[in-house]
Amino acid sequence: MRRKIIAGNWKMNKTPSETITLINQLKPLVATEEADVVFCVPAISLTTAVTAAKGSNIQIGAENMHFEENGAYTGEIAPAMLDDIGVRYVIIGHSERREYFAETDVTVNKKVLKAFEHGITPIICCGESLTQREQGVTIDFIRQQIKIAFLNVTPDQAKTAVIAYEPIWAIGTGKVATSAQAQEVCKAIRDCISEIYDTDTAEAIRIQYGGSVTADSAAELFSQPDIDGGLVGGASLKPDFGKIVNYK
Ligand SMILES: O=C[C@H](O)COP(=O)(O)O
């Protein structure tokens, strides 16, 4: 039985001071022993968030990182910097990074490899656009994203990875995928991992759904056999996130 993992992606929201307030507000609401709970916050608030979350079940994740160790990359954050301050997860290849910051499947793969090198768990995002869904190429497109993201990743590393399936048309739109749509793609992702590695790896890897998840939709989505939790945007900034974490 895979342990659920429910992560909030704060995106570009909340100042460091607001981060302390929100974490203190959410701490009792997201308390659970049944799932991993991760808050992915803006880089400037990571240290603050790690301190604010101490003593709770909340783990802190970054929203991005660079794939090089260090060097002349003005404005970037290196994996060792995240590791040094106690960041345990990093979102990689979110569709907003792909769309606005030119991330590609190849840079996603480099970042995934580097995150593992530093013992940071990658939350690897994939997902189709509305056009791709309408053209019937969703599964083909996502299989390609997954195959490239996992190039040279060992089976032991892959077992600990998290994949977030986020249909682009469902992000921030209020149009949540139906549980059948989400399950179909998450199963296809697991089948793809099984083809790349083996059934043990496919059974171990955790696959989240993301895209307009709310307290109302969480229970049905997270009860699907191949959905192991969620990557939540807007609703992770509200007390409702407590209901999403404790969705049962
Ligand atoms: O990473 C989270 C996703 O982009 C979902 O965002 P949303 O819940 O606001 O639709």
From TrEMBL:
<comment type="pathway">
    <text>Carbohydrate degradation; glycolysis; D-glyceraldehyde 3-phosphate from glycerone phosphate: step 1/1.</text>
</comment>
<feature type="binding site">
    <location>
        <position position="172"/>
    </location>
    <ligand>
        <name>substrate</name>
    </ligand>
</feature>
<dbReference type="GO" id="GO:0046166">
    <property type="term" value="P:glyceraldehyde-3-phosphate biosynthetic process"/>
</dbReference>
<feature type="binding site">
    <location>
        <begin position="9"/>
        <end position="11"/>
    </location>
    <ligand>
        <name>substrate</name>
    </ligand>
</feature>
<protein>
    <recommendedName>
        <fullName>Triosephosphate isomerase</fullName>
        <ecNumber>5.3.1.1</ecNumber>
    </recommendedName>
</protein>
<keyword id="KW-0413">Isomerase</keyword>
<comment type="pathway">
    <text>Carbohydrate biosynthesis; gluconeogenesis.</text>
</comment>
<dbReference type="InterPro" id="IPR022896">
    <property type="entry name" value="TrioseP_Isoase_bac/euk"/>
</dbReference>
<dbReference type="GO" id="GO:0006096">
    <property type="term" value="P:glycolytic process"/>
</dbReference>
<dbReference type="GO" id="GO:0004807">
    <property type="term" value="F:triose-phosphate isomerase activity"/>
</dbReference>
<dbReference type="InterPro" id="IPR035990">
    <property type="entry name" value="TIM_sf"/>
</dbReference>
<dbReference type="Pfam" id="PF00121">
    <property type="entry name" value="TIM"/>
</dbReference>
<dbReference type="InterPro" id="IPR013785">
    <property type="entry name" value="Aldolase_TIM"/>
</dbReference>
<dbReference type="InterPro" id="IPR000652">
    <property type="entry name" value="Triosephosphate_isomerase"/>
</dbReference>
<dbReference type="GO" id="GO:0006094">
    <property type="term" value="P:gluconeogenesis"/>
</dbReference>
<dbReference type="InterPro" id="IPR020861">
    <property type="entry name" value="Triosephosphate_isomerase_AS"/>
</dbReference>
<feature type="binding site">
    <location>
        <begin position="233"/>
        <end position="234"/>
    </location>
    <ligand>
        <name>substrate</name>
    </ligand>
</feature>
<keyword id="KW-0324">Glycolysis</keyword>
<feature type="active site" description="Electrophile">
    <location>
        <position position="94"/>
    </location>
</feature>
<keyword id="KW-0312">Gluconeogenesis</keyword>
<dbReference type="GO" id="GO:0019563">
    <property type="term" value="P:glycerol catabolic process"/>
</dbReference>
<keyword id="KW-0963">Cytoplasm</keyword>
<dbReference type="GO" id="GO:0005829">
    <property type="term" value="C:cytosol"/>
</dbReference>
<comment type="subunit">
    <text>Homodimer.</text>
</comment>
<comment type="function">
    <text>Involved in the gluconeogenesis. Catalyzes stereospecifically the conversion of dihydroxyacetone phosphate (DHAP) to D-glyceraldehyde-3-phosphate (G3P).</text>
</comment>
<feature type="binding site">
    <location>
        <position position="212"/>
    </location>
    <ligand>
        <name>substrate</name>
    </ligand>
</feature>
<feature type="active site" description="Proton acceptor">
    <location>
        <position position="166"/>
    </location>
</feature>
<comment type="similarity">
    <text>Belongs to the triosephosphate isomerase family.</text>
</comment>
